[in-house]
Write a structure and sequence with these properties.
The structure is a homodimer. By secondary structure, chain A is α/β, with parallel strands linked by helices. Chain A is built from seven helices and ten strands. In chain A, strands 3-2-4-1-5 form a five-stranded parallel beta sheet, sandwiched between helices. In chain A, α6 packs across α7.
Protein backbone atom coordinates (compact mmCIF):
# COMPACT_ATOMS: atom_id res chain seq x y z
CA UNK A 1 0.00 0.00 0.00
CA UNK A 2 1.38 3.39 -0.98
CA UNK A 3 0.41 6.16 1.43
CA UNK A 4 0.88 9.81 0.46
CA UNK A 5 1.73 11.91 3.49
CA UNK A 6 1.44 15.25 1.70
CA UNK A 7 3.82 18.20 1.40
CA UNK A 8 5.15 18.34 4.97
CA UNK A 9 2.57 19.79 7.38
CA UNK A 10 1.36 16.79 9.43
CA UNK A 11 -2.15 18.28 9.30
CA UNK A 12 -2.12 17.80 5.53
CA UNK A 13 -2.38 14.03 5.68
CA UNK A 14 -5.79 12.80 4.61
CA UNK A 15 -8.10 11.02 7.04
CA UNK A 16 -7.65 7.91 4.91
CA UNK A 17 -3.85 8.07 5.19
CA UNK A 18 -4.02 8.47 8.97
CA UNK A 19 -6.34 5.48 9.33
CA UNK A 20 -4.07 3.41 7.07
CA UNK A 21 -1.01 4.24 9.18
CA UNK A 22 -2.84 3.50 12.40
CA UNK A 23 -3.85 0.05 11.18
CA UNK A 24 -0.80 -1.05 9.16
CA UNK A 25 1.32 -3.92 10.49
CA UNK A 26 4.49 -2.56 8.91
CA UNK A 27 5.36 1.00 7.90
CA UNK A 28 8.17 1.30 5.34
CA UNK A 29 9.92 4.58 4.53
CA UNK A 30 12.66 5.70 2.19
CA UNK A 31 15.62 7.80 3.27
CA UNK A 32 19.09 8.60 2.12
CA UNK A 33 21.64 6.68 4.17
CA UNK A 34 22.57 8.67 7.26
CA UNK A 35 19.49 10.91 7.04
CA UNK A 36 16.11 10.65 8.73
CA UNK A 37 13.18 9.95 6.41
CA UNK A 38 11.28 13.13 5.61
CA UNK A 39 8.07 11.22 5.02
CA UNK A 40 8.44 9.49 8.39
CA UNK A 41 8.98 12.82 10.13
CA UNK A 42 5.74 14.14 8.60
CA UNK A 43 3.80 11.03 9.63
CA UNK A 44 5.51 10.38 12.98
CA UNK A 45 2.58 11.41 15.18
CA UNK A 46 0.31 8.84 13.53
CA UNK A 47 2.57 5.80 13.98
CA UNK A 48 1.64 3.40 16.75
CA UNK A 49 4.23 2.27 19.30
CA UNK A 50 3.58 -1.32 18.24
CA UNK A 51 4.00 -0.71 14.51
CA UNK A 52 6.97 -2.40 12.96
CA UNK A 53 9.11 -0.05 10.85
CA UNK A 54 11.06 -0.96 7.74
CA UNK A 55 13.56 1.73 6.71
CA UNK A 56 14.65 1.56 3.08
CA UNK A 57 17.99 3.32 2.70
CA UNK A 58 19.10 4.63 -0.69
CA UNK A 59 22.61 3.49 -1.59
CA UNK A 60 23.53 6.93 -2.98
CA UNK A 61 23.17 10.33 -1.43
CA UNK A 62 22.77 12.68 -4.41
CA UNK A 63 20.78 12.34 -7.60
CA UNK A 64 22.78 11.48 -10.71
CA UNK A 65 21.70 11.75 -14.33
CA UNK A 66 19.49 8.74 -14.95
CA UNK A 67 21.58 7.99 -18.04
CA UNK A 68 24.47 6.99 -15.78
CA UNK A 69 24.61 3.17 -16.04
CA UNK A 70 26.34 2.52 -12.71
CA UNK A 71 23.84 4.75 -10.89
CA UNK A 72 20.92 3.07 -12.63
CA UNK A 73 22.24 -0.36 -11.72
CA UNK A 74 22.66 0.53 -8.05
CA UNK A 75 19.16 2.03 -7.92
CA UNK A 76 17.59 -0.96 -9.70
CA UNK A 77 19.22 -3.32 -7.23
CA UNK A 78 18.04 -1.17 -4.33
CA UNK A 79 14.42 -1.21 -5.53
CA UNK A 80 14.59 -4.96 -6.16
CA UNK A 81 15.86 -5.59 -2.63
CA UNK A 82 13.32 -3.18 -1.13
CA UNK A 83 10.46 -4.88 -2.99
CA UNK A 84 11.70 -8.28 -1.78
CA UNK A 85 11.81 -7.08 1.82
CA UNK A 86 8.24 -5.80 1.55
CA UNK A 87 7.08 -8.95 -0.25
CA UNK A 88 8.38 -11.05 2.66
CA UNK A 89 5.93 -9.25 4.97
CA UNK A 90 3.06 -9.38 2.46
CA UNK A 91 3.49 -13.12 2.08
CA UNK A 92 2.71 -13.62 5.76
CA UNK A 93 -0.52 -11.66 5.34
CA UNK A 94 0.69 -8.43 6.91
CA UNK A 95 -0.40 -5.01 5.65
CA UNK A 96 2.58 -2.88 4.66
CA UNK A 97 2.20 0.89 4.26
CA UNK A 98 4.97 2.52 2.21
CA UNK A 99 5.20 6.21 3.05
CA UNK A 100 5.56 8.72 0.23
CA UNK A 101 6.22 12.42 0.48
CA UNK A 102 3.48 14.20 -1.47
CA UNK A 103 1.58 11.79 -3.70
CA UNK A 104 2.87 8.21 -4.17
CA UNK A 105 2.54 7.97 -7.96
CA UNK A 106 3.78 11.50 -8.71
CA UNK A 107 7.60 11.23 -8.69
CA UNK A 108 7.41 9.06 -5.56
CA UNK A 109 9.83 6.23 -4.82
CA UNK A 110 6.87 4.05 -3.87
CA UNK A 111 5.99 3.55 -7.53
CA UNK A 112 9.16 1.53 -8.06
CA UNK A 113 7.92 -0.88 -5.40
CA UNK A 114 4.40 -0.76 -6.86
CA UNK A 115 5.42 -1.86 -10.35
CA UNK A 116 7.48 -4.73 -8.92
CA UNK A 117 4.68 -6.10 -6.74
CA UNK A 118 1.41 -5.14 -8.44
CA UNK A 119 1.08 -8.43 -10.30
CA UNK A 120 1.79 -10.55 -7.23
CA UNK A 121 -0.13 -8.80 -4.45
CA UNK A 122 -3.21 -6.66 -3.97
CA UNK A 123 -2.05 -3.05 -4.05
CA UNK A 124 -3.80 0.12 -2.93
CA UNK A 125 -2.62 3.69 -3.35
CA UNK A 126 -3.82 6.47 -1.07
CA UNK A 127 -3.23 9.74 -2.90
CA UNK A 128 -1.70 12.70 -1.09
CA UNK A 129 -1.47 16.45 -1.47
CA UNK A 130 1.51 17.06 -3.77
CA UNK A 131 4.40 19.27 -2.75
CA UNK A 132 3.53 21.62 -5.61
CA UNK A 133 -0.04 22.07 -4.30
CA UNK A 134 1.41 22.73 -0.86
CA UNK A 135 3.79 25.33 -2.28
CA UNK A 136 1.34 27.28 -4.44
CA UNK A 137 -1.21 27.24 -1.61
CA UNK A 138 1.38 28.53 0.87
CA UNK A 139 2.25 31.27 -1.63
CA UNK A 140 -1.44 32.01 -2.35
CA UNK A 141 -0.57 31.76 -6.03
CA UNK A 142 -3.36 30.68 -8.42
CA UNK A 143 -1.43 28.42 -10.76
CA UNK A 144 -3.84 27.40 -13.53
CA UNK A 145 -7.38 28.41 -14.56
CA UNK A 146 -9.64 28.14 -17.57
CA UNK A 147 -7.80 26.86 -20.63
CA UNK A 148 -4.32 27.05 -19.06
CA UNK A 149 -1.86 24.21 -19.63
CA UNK A 150 0.32 23.22 -16.66
CA UNK A 151 3.79 21.85 -17.24
CA UNK A 152 5.77 20.18 -14.45
CA UNK A 153 9.51 20.04 -15.13
CA UNK A 154 12.14 18.23 -13.10
CA UNK A 155 15.12 20.55 -12.55
CA UNK A 156 17.33 17.64 -13.56
CA UNK A 157 16.57 18.27 -17.27
CA UNK A 158 19.32 19.75 -19.48
CA UNK A 159 19.42 23.55 -19.56
CA UNK A 160 18.45 23.72 -23.24
CA UNK A 161 15.32 21.64 -22.51
CA UNK A 162 14.35 23.84 -19.57
CA UNK A 163 14.73 26.96 -21.72
CA UNK A 164 12.72 25.47 -24.57
CA UNK A 165 9.84 24.58 -22.25
CA UNK A 166 9.88 27.85 -20.33
CA UNK A 167 9.75 29.82 -23.57
CA UNK A 168 6.19 28.50 -24.10
CA UNK A 169 5.12 31.17 -21.58
CA UNK A 170 2.75 28.87 -19.74
CA UNK A 171 2.31 28.16 -16.03
CA UNK A 172 5.21 25.92 -15.05
CA UNK A 173 6.38 24.16 -11.90
CA UNK A 174 10.05 23.26 -11.59
CA UNK A 175 10.65 20.48 -9.07
CA UNK A 176 13.80 18.69 -7.83
CA UNK A 177 15.80 21.86 -7.37
CA UNK A 178 18.64 21.16 -4.96
CA UNK A 179 21.90 21.61 -6.81
CA UNK A 180 20.02 22.27 -10.06
CA UNK A 181 19.01 25.77 -8.94
CA UNK A 182 21.83 27.69 -10.75
CA UNK A 183 20.84 25.98 -14.01
CA UNK A 184 17.14 26.64 -13.40
CA UNK A 185 17.85 30.31 -12.69
CA UNK A 186 19.88 30.65 -15.91
CA UNK A 187 17.05 28.99 -17.85
CA UNK A 188 14.50 31.44 -16.41
CA UNK A 189 16.70 34.39 -17.35
CA UNK A 190 17.30 33.00 -20.84
CA UNK A 191 13.55 32.47 -21.38
CA UNK A 192 12.75 35.91 -19.94
CA UNK A 193 10.55 34.50 -17.15
CA UNK A 194 12.55 35.20 -14.01
CA UNK A 195 10.21 38.08 -13.06
CA UNK A 196 7.28 35.64 -12.66
CA UNK A 197 9.23 32.97 -10.74
CA UNK A 198 8.51 32.37 -7.06
CA UNK A 199 10.90 30.22 -5.02
CA UNK A 200 9.28 28.15 -2.23
CA UNK A 201 11.42 26.10 0.15
CA UNK A 202 9.90 23.46 2.47
CA UNK A 203 6.38 24.66 1.66
CA UNK A 204 3.79 24.01 4.45
CA UNK A 205 6.55 22.94 6.89
CA UNK A 206 7.22 24.94 10.06
CA UNK A 207 10.39 26.43 8.55
CA UNK A 208 8.89 27.29 5.14
CA UNK A 209 10.51 30.15 3.21
CA UNK A 210 9.46 31.84 0.01
CA UNK A 211 10.51 34.79 -2.10
CA UNK A 212 10.63 35.96 -5.70
CA UNK A 213 13.52 33.97 -7.16
CA UNK A 214 15.02 37.22 -8.49
CA UNK A 215 15.44 38.34 -4.85
CA UNK A 216 17.10 35.15 -3.65
CA UNK A 217 20.74 36.09 -3.22
CA UNK A 218 22.32 32.64 -3.31
CA UNK A 219 21.84 29.50 -5.36
CA UNK A 220 21.68 26.94 -2.57
CA UNK A 221 18.42 25.04 -2.28
CA UNK A 222 17.29 21.89 -0.49
CA UNK A 223 15.64 19.03 -2.34
CA UNK A 224 12.33 20.28 -0.89
CA UNK A 225 12.28 23.45 -2.94
CA UNK A 226 10.16 24.36 -5.92
CA UNK A 227 9.99 27.22 -8.39
CA UNK A 228 6.50 28.31 -9.49
CA UNK A 229 6.36 30.25 -12.73
CA UNK A 230 2.96 31.82 -13.35
CA UNK A 231 1.55 33.90 -16.15
CA UNK A 232 0.04 36.23 -13.52
CA UNK A 233 -3.33 36.17 -15.31
CA UNK A 234 -5.04 37.81 -12.36
CA UNK A 235 -3.10 41.04 -12.89
CA UNK A 236 -4.24 41.52 -16.48
CA UNK B 1 -10.21 30.78 3.09
CA UNK B 2 -10.05 28.29 0.24
CA UNK B 3 -10.50 24.69 1.38
CA UNK B 4 -9.65 21.81 -0.95
CA UNK B 5 -11.96 18.86 -0.35
CA UNK B 6 -10.05 16.46 -2.60
CA UNK B 7 -11.17 14.25 -5.48
CA UNK B 8 -14.47 12.96 -4.08
CA UNK B 9 -13.94 10.31 -1.40
CA UNK B 10 -14.86 12.07 1.89
CA UNK B 11 -11.95 10.22 3.54
CA UNK B 12 -9.57 12.13 1.25
CA UNK B 13 -10.05 15.47 2.96
CA UNK B 14 -7.00 16.47 4.97
CA UNK B 15 -7.16 16.81 8.75
CA UNK B 16 -6.58 20.53 8.25
CA UNK B 17 -9.55 20.87 5.90
CA UNK B 18 -11.84 19.02 8.31
CA UNK B 19 -10.82 21.27 11.20
CA UNK B 20 -11.33 24.35 9.03
CA UNK B 21 -14.84 23.26 8.09
CA UNK B 22 -15.71 22.43 11.67
CA UNK B 23 -14.69 25.88 12.85
CA UNK B 24 -15.79 28.12 9.96
CA UNK B 25 -18.66 30.54 10.53
CA UNK B 26 -19.77 30.38 6.90
CA UNK B 27 -19.20 27.66 4.31
CA UNK B 28 -19.55 28.80 0.69
CA UNK B 29 -19.81 26.40 -2.24
CA UNK B 30 -20.12 26.69 -5.99
CA UNK B 31 -22.70 24.80 -8.05
CA UNK B 32 -24.37 25.03 -11.37
CA UNK B 33 -27.92 26.39 -10.98
CA UNK B 34 -30.32 23.53 -10.36
CA UNK B 35 -27.57 21.10 -9.33
CA UNK B 36 -26.22 20.19 -5.90
CA UNK B 37 -22.63 21.28 -5.22
CA UNK B 38 -20.23 18.38 -5.72
CA UNK B 39 -17.75 19.87 -3.25
CA UNK B 40 -20.50 20.22 -0.64
CA UNK B 41 -21.54 16.59 -1.14
CA UNK B 42 -17.94 15.48 -0.52
CA UNK B 43 -17.65 17.62 2.62
CA UNK B 44 -21.22 17.19 3.93
CA UNK B 45 -20.34 14.97 6.88
CA UNK B 46 -17.97 17.59 8.29
CA UNK B 47 -20.38 20.54 8.26
CA UNK B 48 -21.89 21.53 11.58
CA UNK B 49 -25.65 21.97 11.97
CA UNK B 50 -25.02 25.53 13.09
CA UNK B 51 -22.78 26.48 10.15
CA UNK B 52 -24.24 29.08 7.84
CA UNK B 53 -24.06 28.07 4.17
CA UNK B 54 -23.60 30.38 1.21
CA UNK B 55 -24.36 28.70 -2.13
CA UNK B 56 -22.80 30.41 -5.15
CA UNK B 57 -24.75 29.46 -8.26
CA UNK B 58 -23.16 29.74 -11.70
CA UNK B 59 -25.32 31.67 -14.14
CA UNK B 60 -24.56 29.21 -16.96
CA UNK B 61 -24.81 25.46 -17.06
CA UNK B 62 -22.21 24.42 -19.63
CA UNK B 63 -18.69 25.64 -20.28
CA UNK B 64 -18.27 27.93 -23.26
CA UNK B 65 -15.09 28.94 -25.02
CA UNK B 66 -13.49 31.57 -22.82
CA UNK B 67 -13.13 33.76 -25.89
CA UNK B 68 -16.92 34.26 -25.95
CA UNK B 69 -17.42 37.84 -24.72
CA UNK B 70 -20.97 37.43 -23.42
CA UNK B 71 -19.98 34.31 -21.46
CA UNK B 72 -16.92 36.06 -20.05
CA UNK B 73 -19.02 39.03 -19.01
CA UNK B 74 -21.58 36.87 -17.22
CA UNK B 75 -18.84 34.92 -15.43
CA UNK B 76 -16.98 38.08 -14.41
CA UNK B 77 -20.15 39.52 -12.95
CA UNK B 78 -20.87 36.26 -11.13
CA UNK B 79 -17.42 36.21 -9.51
CA UNK B 80 -17.70 39.89 -8.60
CA UNK B 81 -21.04 39.31 -6.90
CA UNK B 82 -19.79 36.15 -5.18
CA UNK B 83 -16.72 37.97 -3.87
CA UNK B 84 -18.95 40.80 -2.59
CA UNK B 85 -21.22 38.33 -0.78
CA UNK B 86 -18.20 36.72 0.90
CA UNK B 87 -16.64 40.10 1.70
CA UNK B 88 -19.84 41.10 3.53
CA UNK B 89 -19.26 38.21 5.95
CA UNK B 90 -15.52 38.84 6.26
CA UNK B 91 -16.16 42.48 7.16
CA UNK B 92 -18.08 41.38 10.25
CA UNK B 93 -15.12 39.27 11.36
CA UNK B 94 -16.54 35.92 10.34
CA UNK B 95 -14.39 33.13 8.93
CA UNK B 96 -15.61 32.02 5.51
CA UNK B 97 -14.49 28.67 4.06
CA UNK B 98 -14.94 28.40 0.29
CA UNK B 99 -15.11 24.74 -0.73
CA UNK B 100 -13.13 23.58 -3.77
CA UNK B 101 -13.22 20.22 -5.45
CA UNK B 102 -9.65 18.94 -5.59
CA UNK B 103 -7.15 21.69 -4.88
CA UNK B 104 -8.34 25.32 -4.65
CA UNK B 105 -5.64 26.95 -6.82
CA UNK B 106 -5.53 24.21 -9.46
CA UNK B 107 -8.39 25.02 -11.86
CA UNK B 108 -10.64 25.78 -8.86
CA UNK B 109 -13.36 28.45 -8.90
CA UNK B 110 -12.11 29.61 -5.51
CA UNK B 111 -9.14 31.33 -7.12
CA UNK B 112 -11.44 33.87 -8.76
CA UNK B 113 -12.64 34.85 -5.28
CA UNK B 114 -9.08 34.76 -3.97
CA UNK B 115 -7.70 37.26 -6.49
CA UNK B 116 -10.60 39.64 -5.82
CA UNK B 117 -10.19 39.64 -2.03
CA UNK B 118 -6.49 38.90 -1.37
CA UNK B 119 -5.53 42.58 -1.10
CA UNK B 120 -8.40 43.43 1.27
CA UNK B 121 -8.55 40.48 3.66
CA UNK B 122 -6.27 37.87 5.17
CA UNK B 123 -6.50 34.79 2.96
CA UNK B 124 -5.47 31.22 3.63
CA UNK B 125 -5.50 28.31 1.22
CA UNK B 126 -5.69 24.71 2.42
CA UNK B 127 -4.42 22.52 -0.41
CA UNK B 128 -6.28 19.38 -1.38
CA UNK B 129 -5.64 16.12 -3.20
CA UNK B 130 -6.23 16.91 -6.88
CA UNK B 131 -8.71 14.95 -8.96
CA UNK B 132 -5.83 13.78 -11.16
CA UNK B 133 -3.97 12.31 -8.13
CA UNK B 134 -7.21 10.61 -7.10
CA UNK B 135 -7.64 9.15 -10.59
CA UNK B 136 -4.11 7.84 -11.14
CA UNK B 137 -4.10 6.39 -7.62
CA UNK B 138 -7.44 4.66 -8.19
CA UNK B 139 -6.03 3.26 -11.43
CA UNK B 140 -2.71 2.29 -9.76
CA UNK B 141 -0.97 4.07 -12.62
CA UNK B 142 2.49 5.55 -11.92
CA UNK B 143 2.26 8.80 -13.83
CA UNK B 144 5.71 10.42 -13.67
CA UNK B 145 9.13 9.34 -12.41
CA UNK B 146 12.74 10.40 -12.77
CA UNK B 147 13.20 13.03 -15.47
CA UNK B 148 9.63 12.78 -16.81
CA UNK B 149 7.76 15.96 -17.70
CA UNK B 150 4.06 16.06 -16.83
CA UNK B 151 1.66 18.07 -18.97
CA UNK B 152 -1.89 18.81 -17.81
CA UNK B 153 -4.22 19.76 -20.66
CA UNK B 154 -7.78 21.04 -20.38
CA UNK B 155 -9.98 19.17 -22.87
CA UNK B 156 -11.38 22.56 -23.86
CA UNK B 157 -8.30 23.28 -26.01
CA UNK B 158 -8.65 23.20 -29.81
CA UNK B 159 -8.09 19.80 -31.38
CA UNK B 160 -4.93 20.91 -33.20
CA UNK B 161 -3.43 22.04 -29.87
CA UNK B 162 -4.30 18.76 -28.18
CA UNK B 163 -2.69 16.81 -31.01
CA UNK B 164 0.45 18.95 -30.96
CA UNK B 165 0.90 18.42 -27.22
CA UNK B 166 0.11 14.72 -27.26
CA UNK B 167 2.66 14.15 -30.03
CA UNK B 168 5.41 15.00 -27.54
CA UNK B 169 4.96 11.45 -26.23
CA UNK B 170 5.14 12.47 -22.60
CA UNK B 171 2.92 11.62 -19.62
CA UNK B 172 -0.20 13.73 -20.03
CA UNK B 173 -3.39 14.31 -18.08
CA UNK B 174 -6.45 15.57 -19.94
CA UNK B 175 -8.99 17.22 -17.64
CA UNK B 176 -12.40 18.86 -18.21
CA UNK B 177 -13.68 16.10 -20.43
CA UNK B 178 -17.50 16.25 -20.48
CA UNK B 179 -18.60 17.03 -23.99
CA UNK B 180 -14.98 17.40 -25.12
CA UNK B 181 -14.43 13.63 -25.09
CA UNK B 182 -15.03 13.01 -28.83
CA UNK B 183 -12.42 15.67 -29.65
CA UNK B 184 -9.98 14.27 -27.07
CA UNK B 185 -10.41 10.77 -28.48
CA UNK B 186 -9.75 12.00 -32.04
CA UNK B 187 -6.63 13.81 -30.79
CA UNK B 188 -5.33 10.65 -29.13
CA UNK B 189 -5.87 8.65 -32.32
CA UNK B 190 -4.24 11.35 -34.45
CA UNK B 191 -1.20 11.46 -32.13
CA UNK B 192 -1.03 7.67 -31.99
CA UNK B 193 -1.46 7.54 -28.21
CA UNK B 194 -4.88 6.00 -27.74
CA UNK B 195 -3.36 2.67 -26.69
CA UNK B 196 -1.82 4.29 -23.60
CA UNK B 197 -4.91 6.27 -22.59
CA UNK B 198 -6.91 5.30 -19.49
CA UNK B 199 -10.33 6.84 -18.90
CA UNK B 200 -11.28 7.41 -15.25
CA UNK B 201 -14.74 8.68 -14.31
CA UNK B 202 -15.55 9.96 -10.80
CA UNK B 203 -12.22 8.67 -9.46
CA UNK B 204 -12.25 7.79 -5.70
CA UNK B 205 -16.05 8.23 -5.53
CA UNK B 206 -18.34 5.30 -4.66
CA UNK B 207 -19.45 5.00 -8.31
CA UNK B 208 -15.97 5.30 -9.86
CA UNK B 209 -15.46 3.68 -13.28
CA UNK B 210 -12.31 3.20 -15.31
CA UNK B 211 -11.25 1.48 -18.52
CA UNK B 212 -8.80 1.83 -21.38
CA UNK B 213 -10.29 4.65 -23.46
CA UNK B 214 -10.02 2.43 -26.55
CA UNK B 215 -12.53 0.08 -24.88
CA UNK B 216 -15.06 2.76 -23.98
CA UNK B 217 -17.89 2.30 -26.47
CA UNK B 218 -19.51 5.72 -26.24
CA UNK B 219 -18.30 9.29 -26.03
CA UNK B 220 -20.42 10.53 -23.14
CA UNK B 221 -18.48 11.65 -20.08
CA UNK B 222 -19.31 13.66 -16.98
CA UNK B 223 -17.30 16.71 -15.99
CA UNK B 224 -15.62 14.52 -13.36
CA UNK B 225 -13.76 12.41 -15.87
CA UNK B 226 -10.08 12.41 -16.77
CA UNK B 227 -7.90 10.72 -19.34
CA UNK B 228 -4.45 9.62 -18.19
CA UNK B 229 -1.90 9.08 -20.94
CA UNK B 230 1.24 7.37 -19.72
CA UNK B 231 4.45 6.33 -21.38
CA UNK B 232 4.17 2.96 -19.61
CA UNK B 233 7.84 3.20 -18.53
CA UNK B 234 7.41 0.30 -16.11
CA UNK B 235 6.81 -2.14 -18.96
CA UNK B 236 10.07 -1.38 -20.75
Amino acid sequence: MGVGVGPGDPELLTLKAVRALESADVVAHFAKAGNPSNARATAARYLQATTRELPLLYPVTTEHPTGDAAYRGAIEQFFNESAAAIAAHLQTGQVVAVLSEGDPLFFGSYMHIHVRLMNRFRTEVIPGVTSMSGCWSAAGLPIVQGDDVLTVLPGTLPESELVRRLRQNEPTVVMKLGRNLPKVRRSLIESNRLANAIYVERGTMHDERMMPLAEKADDSAPYFAIVLVTNAWWRS
